[in-house]
Amino acid sequence: MNAIRIIEVCSELGAAQLGASMGPDAIRMAAHKTGSDFFVRHETIRLPDRNDLLADKNHNVGCQHVKRLRYILENCLTVCNTVTDALEAGDFPLVLSADHSSAAGTLAGIRQAYPRERLGVIWIDAHSDMHSPYTTHSGNMHGMPLGAALGLDTQARDFLGETPNPLSPEDQRRWNHLKELGGVVPKILPEDLVLIGVRFFKPEHSILIENLGIPLHTVAAIRDKGAEHYAKLIQQQLAHCDRLYVSFDVDSLDCNVVSRGTGTPEPDGLYMEEALTLMRAFMANPKVCCLEIAEVNPVLDDKGNAMGEAAWEILANTIDASG
C-alpha cells in the first residue's frame, strides 16, 4: 500500500445529533489505548469545520429540506481537494469523517484525480444514503452523499408518483454545485455501486434501488452464506472498475451487540467478525484507492468508547496491517 495520509473531517453539520465531530478523536483514543503509534507514523491533516454554526440560530437550519447546505458544500469542496491532493501525491487517503455527508466530497476528490477511470463504490451502511433535497424527509445531509454522487434529484419520489420537496433557486443551485464537484457528473453509475448491510428503508429507496439495479447484500444473506463468500462476490461484481472506494459507516454494525455510539443506530447489523472478514478482503484488493470511516459518535456511546474501539479494530486489522 502507498503511504497513508489520514484526513480527519470533523464537520458534523449534516448529522441529526451532536457528537460526531469527536469521532476521529475517539478512534485516536482507541488506538492509543492499544499502544499503537499509527497516528504518529502517518501524516494527518485535520480539516477546518464550521460546527460553531450549530449554536447560531441564524445559520442553524436554512431550508428544511436541505439543512446547512451552504456550509456542507464548502466542507465537501475542501474534502474534495484534499483527497485529490493525496491521490496525486501517490498517497492513500484514509478519511475519518464525523458525519457521512463528507463522503460526497471524498467521491468528488477521487473522480477529480481519476476523471477517465471507472470508480466502483463499496458502501457499507445501515442506510442507502441516496436521498436528495427533493426526496428527503429529514433534510439532514448525511443521508444524501450517494444521491449527490449518482446525480439524483426527484427520481425516488417519481417512482412513487409523489410530489418532490420544493427548493429555492439558491438551494437548487447549491445542490447542483455539490453534484458537480470534481468535474464529473455523475460521479458513479448504479452498476458501479454495491450496498452492504442496508436495512433501514424508506419505501422510495427500495423502489429506487430496484429500478436502478443496484446490488444490495443484506446482513441476513451474509450471515447465511458467510462474509468470505460475499467479499469475493462483491469484488467480482465490481471487477470491471478501475478503482475502488470503500466507505464504512459504523451504523452498519449491530447496535445491540457492538455499540450505540453512532447517530442513527440500527439493530440486526453486522457482527465485528463479519465486518472484519469483509474489510480484510476489500483492503487487500490493490484497486482500493481510498477508505472512509464515518459516524462514530462517542457522546451517544452506551459502552464507553466501544464504537471508537470497533472502528480502530477494523483499521488495525486491515489498513494498518497492510500499511
Automatic annotation (TrEMBL):
Pathway recorded for this protein: Nitrogen metabolism; urea cycle; L-ornithine and urea from L-arginine: step 1/1
Enzyme class: hydrolase
EC number(s) from the headed UniProt entry: 3.5.3.1
GO MF annotation terms: arginase activity; manganese ion binding
Cofactor: Mn(2+)
Annotated GO CC locations: cytosol
Pfam families: Arginase
Gene Ontology biological-process annotations: arginine metabolic process
Cofactor detail note: Binds 2 manganese ions per subunit.
Keyword Glycoprotein: no
UniProt record similarity statement: Belongs to the arginase family.
Protein name per the record: Arginase
Source species: Thiothrix nivea (strain ATCC 35100 / DSM 5205 / JP2)
Organismal lineage: Bacteria, Pseudomonadati, Pseudomonadota, Gammaproteobacteria, Thiotrichales
